[in-house]
Specification:
- The chain contains 34 helices and 28 strands.
- A hairpin with a 2-residue loop joins strand 6 and strand 7.
- The N and C termini lie far apart (80 Å).
- 46% of the residues are buried.
Length: 992
């Protein structure tokens, strides 16, 4: 291992990096060494490489886990500014270490890195070696809350993992560290003892006190304008926080507060460091970025119709952005071409992780000639009374480069102007496309954008090359520093990684020759067919429908899918299936293999990218999965030795939110709120017994080691542990249901007790956090309150039997329990939450494709989502029935004419005209009016003709004030009869 560190040091120093030493206080990553986190700030160039022992208390495993250590070795490289080819430099460094990049599956997999404690973030990848993460590769975007210019590239090697792969060992202890000395012999004792300290023996109160002391010292150093010692104390805060986290003494909310505090300090450290470097006048100079490309001024001519190929070459895009980018490029190209006069055929796009490809068929040689009409001043202002041209018209003609005699009349919407018509020669196809394609590149955007060494471009990952061919001719395109040509890039490990394209028409086949499939539909078919074929060899299959989302992700992770069958020890099947599949899907992107009954088999299908040695890649992936399953087994065994009640007791140590109390207090509130809601709906019998017991155990699995490690298994593990503790299946299912739905589109609770617990959970979250002012702002929603509100709506929509629980009823039950802790829950905040949830309901309907006017019409009912759903469905039926549009029209007219605040009462004796008497009698027949749309429409249909006649024959605003009041009161009565049913005004005139 020490030889590998020396080899990396030599490789990077040969490429201009300076070597510095590890830092002298605990850091969780080499990033936090001042040689990275401070040096990436400001305009000075900086290339550095160093070894960094990185301490992560939460990764403590007593030395038992083969891949997880509390102190692991990183090799850190910072390249400032981005050199333009950092991935290629990195791959070459792996070869220096002895890794055969042609045999192994080396993959760049999306990883959006962030360090909230220092206010730093960047975009990039985890680098996988046969499924094992060996390196973090990041384009730094911010540090200390400051935007970085220029952008730095950070490469962080995980040395132990690389050495395990190189030496073919399955446990870090077996790594040959030096001649005759293993890693375990050198560091095993320290690994065990520090694991004991971090997981079991560190004193929580002492660590909390240290956190406060370090934070105070950091503040004092900032006041003294000493950024380096201030930074050291921020690092000590961070490490102390990590110790507390490993001890299970930090909740989600407490974490957010601690991060906010450390982020504030780190931001001030960064600002002070930048100020000090400015004061020192940048001793290292200022970095230079590539110059902008020259804008094309000459363009090739083509004849006939040809196909356009436009390729945007990138570094590996996140899989979620691949298809979206292809579609946005197709749409933008279609719209921009439509704004020209250039004739063309269909626009088609394809995408892989490294390229977005657009084809346009039958592109004409050029635009047809046209005439351009320029409008000048009004004719009345263009000539004086004697018919002489005015200065305004003369100036217009001069500006257009024509003689005033060439001006002619132009009529626009009945107004006459003077104008000039000039020829507008068509441009050649290459000239038109040059501008359009440049705009496509500069307009690229994604959900999360980044910068690199190109100051004018911003996208999900760096754009590195462009190809633009019209037939066999290069279309000159300049986009910031990039120019288009005919050279594309294939696999980085290919003998010839760049390839010349002769003509647009042969591009897709050329890529296929080099092992790249640009068409995602074909990649998907290849993956599914290969996976099923491999699974069949062990008597299994892949659930293509059930794994559809994962398959879609895999499609956009590879350019040349190579499916490989792997296996694991059957003993791991003793773990709950959800644990196994969560690890496979979420962490490794493996496809689970199942038997004919749907049971898991001890096999999986991994999909490598490109040509590899299957046995090598299989062995690596199996080792990774084995390590992850060992982790899961460790947590599972530990948790099974603990009762649910004991786990529930651990919640006392977890602070939910400073004002709202501990997680135990929150769990208690959830139980009591659920019981209150049960009373609202009259729950009884076995369901009530189930609810009461599940309420006692609510959220207990948050105190389990498994859920601390794999948070997405909350609820799943509650069900598993409850079953094994002897609870009834109904109780176990209710505890599982409590966490549903986890996200949009997820299933809602299957049982009534589970639905009540899930509602209680979300009502407590919403009422409590809104009450203390922690509501979402803009795109920031750290407590996922939008998801919580959407969950409430989804549950109430799917459980109509709970219709008695409206939003105000549920929130009031939550407010009562929160108030019992002495926390004020203002009525205004509850109203705000209710409106917040109604907006989530509205969005669900719009996303489903419902008519926006009909959605708006039922929104007043949305505090009872099931009722609003039923009304919306009935409205959809009614809009096509005879007479409904007329009913809507008369009700809208009645409401429009009545001033706001008009009392719905009147003296019938003041109504003497026949039309108003008939209307009064019709109203009496309808009163009291039904409140459901299905019943109201036939009942109120008797009002249509009388209201129509009333407005034709009666002057509502009569001179006699008593008559006027009676007529308005009559109309107000009609208004209020209809109001509980629907917002009739929201339907507008769409039904007329």
């Amino acid at each position: 291992m020490q030889d590998a560190l020396l080899a990396l040091t030599k490789y990077w120093t040969d490429r201009g990096c300076m070597v510095v030493q590890p830092f002298n206080t605990e850091v969780g990553a080499g990033t936090l060494n001042p040689a990275t986190i401070l040096r990436v700030l400001g305009p000075e160039p900086w290339r550095v490489a160093y070894v960094e022992p990185s301490v992560r208390p939460d990764d403590s495993r007593y030395g038992e886990n083969p891949n997880r250590l509390q102190t692991h070795t990183q090799f850190q490289v910072v390249l400032k500014p981005d050199p333009g080819n950092p991935q290629e430099l990195f791959l070459a460094s792996l070869e220096v270490l002895g890794i055969d990049i042609h045999a192994h599956d080396v993959r760049f997999v999306e990883d959006n890195w962030a360090n909230p404690a220092t206010g730093s973030w960047g975009l990039g990848w985890e680098v996988w070696l046969d499924g094992l993460e060996i390196t973090q590769f990041t384009y730094f975007q911010q540090a200390g809350g400051m935007t970085l210019d220029p952008v730095s590239v950070e490469i962080t090697y995980g040395i132990e993992r690389i050495m395990m792969a190189l030496q073919g060992v399955s446990h870090f202890k077996d790594i040959a560290y030096a001649p005759g000395i293993s890693y375990g012999e050198a560091f095993g004792q320290a690994e065990y003892e520090m694991s004991r300290y971090y997981l079991d023996d560190a004193d929580v109160e002492s660590q909390k006190r240290l956190f406060e002391e370090y934070a105070a010292e950091a503040r004092r150093m900032l006041d003294a304008r000493l950024p380096v010692p201030a930074h050291i104390n921020v690092l000590r805060c961070s490490h102390t926080f990590n110790v507390l986290d490993a001890r299970g003494a930090v909740s989600t909310t407490e974490r957010a507060k601690a991060f906010g505090r450390m982020r504030t300090l780190a931001r001030e450290v960064a600002q002070l460091w930048a100020e000090r470097r400015t004061e020192l006048e940048y001793p290292l100079g200022q970095a230079e970025l590539p110059a902008a490309a020259e804008v094309p001024t000459s363009f090739p001519k083509v004849s006939g119709t040809r196909q356009l190929l436009f390729e945007i070459g990138t570094e590996e895009m996140p899989p979620s952005e691949v298809a979206k980018t292809a579609e946005s490029v197709r749409k933008a190209l279609t719209e921009k071409l439509a704004a020209t006069r250039l004739g063309h055929g269909t626009v088609t796009t394809y995408a892989t992780p490294r390229r977005v490809v657009a084809f346009v068929t039958e592109v004409q040689a050029g635009e047809p000639d046209a005439e351009k009409v320029a409008r000048g001043p009004k004719k009345a202002a263009a000539f004086d009374a004697e018919g002489n041209i005015t200065k305004a018209a003369a100036g217009f003609a001069r500006g257009q480069g024509v003689d005033a005699s060439e001006l002619h009349d132009l009529d626009v919407d009945g107004v006459t102007y003077v104008a000039v018509t000039k020829p507008d020669p068509g441009r050649g196809a290459a000239e038109v496309l040059s501008g359009v394609l440049s705009e496509i590149v500069t307009g690229l955007r994604s959900d999360k954008n980044m910068r690199w060494n190109d100051a004018k471009l911003s996208f999900t990952r760096p754009v590195r090359w462009l190809v633009a061919l019209l037939g066999d001719q290069v279309v000159p395109v300049a986009a910031s520093t990039l120019t288009a040509g005919r050279i594309t890039r294939v696999h980085r490990t290919a003998a010839q990684p760049t390839v010349e394209i002769a003509a647009a028409e042969g591009y897709l086949d050329l890529l296929r020759i080099h092992g790249i499939e640009a068409d995602p539909a074909r990649r998907r078919t290849q993956i599914v067919e290969a996976a099923q074929e491999l699974a069949a060899t062990v008597g299994g299959s892949v659930d293509v429908e059930g794994e559809s989302a994962l398959i879609d992700q895999i499609v956009n992770l590879v350019e040349e899918p190579t499916a490989i069958l792997g296996g694991f020890e059957p003993a791991y099947l003793d773990l709950p299936g959800e644990i196994l599949t969560t690890v496979m899907r979420k962490h490794q992107r493996y496809l689970p293999v199942r038997d004919a009954d749907g049971k898991l088999l001890p096999h999986f299908v991994a999909v490598a990218n490109g040509s590899v040695k299957p046995d090598v890649v299989r062995g690596g992936n199996e080792g990774v999965l084995r390590a992850r399953y060992e982790d899961a087994s460790f947590f599972w065994r530990a948790d099974l030795q603990t009762t649910p009640e004991t786990m529930k007791g651990e919640l006392d140590k977890l602070a939910f939110e400073e004002k709202l109390g501990s997680m135990a207090q929150r769990a208690g509130r959830i139980g009591r709120i659920a019981q209150s809601l049960a009373g609202t709906v009259g729950l009884d019998g076995d369901d009530l017994t189930t609810l009461n017991r599940a309420a006692e155990l609510a959220k207990f699995d948050l105190g389990s080691q498994m859920v601390v490690e794999l948070t997405s298994l909350a609820g799943t593990m509650a069900r598993e542990y409850a079953r094994r503790a002897g609870e009834t299946e109904a109780v176990a299912q209710a505890l599982f249901d409590l966490e549903l739905p986890r996200s949009a589109g997820d299933p809602v609770p299957a049982t009534t007790p589970g639905a009540l617990l899930a509602l209680a959970d979300r009502f407590d979250l919403l009422a409590g956090l809104f009450a203390i002012g922690a509501k979402p702002t803009g795109s920031s929603d750290p407590f996922a309150l939008r998801r919580a509100a959407a969950g409430v709506v989804a549950i109430l929509r799917e459980h109509p039997s709970l219709r008695a629980i409206t939003l105000p009823v549920g929130l009031a039950a939550a407010a009562e329990q929160i108030g019992a802790q002495g926390i004020e829950v203002p009525a205004e905040s509850l109203a705000e939450v209710s409106e917040f949830a109604v907006r989530r309901y509205e969005q669900q309907l719009i996303d489903r494709g419902d008519d926006h006017l009909q959605v708006a019409a039922v929104l007043p009912l949305a505090e009872a989502p099931a009722l609003a759903d039923e009304t919306l469905a009935e409205l959809g039926r009614q809009v096509d029935t005879e007479g409904f549009a007329e009913l809507v029209a008369v009700l809208q007219r009645a409401r429009r004419i009545v001033p706001a605040g008009t009392d719905p009462s009147y003296d019938p004796s003041k109504l003497t005209e026949p039309a108003e008497v008939v209307l009064h009698e019709a109203v009496q027949k309808v009163t009291p009016a039904p409140t459901t749309l299905a019943e109201f429409v036939p009942a109120a249909s008797v009002l249509v003709e009388p209201i129509t006649t009333f407005f034709e024959e009666i002057l509502v605003m009569a001179e006699d004030p008593e008559v006027k009041a009676a007529r308005l009161g009559l109309l107000a009565t009609i208004r209020d009869l209809a109001a509980p049913v629907l917002d009739w005004q929201a339907l507008g005139t769409s039904l007329g």
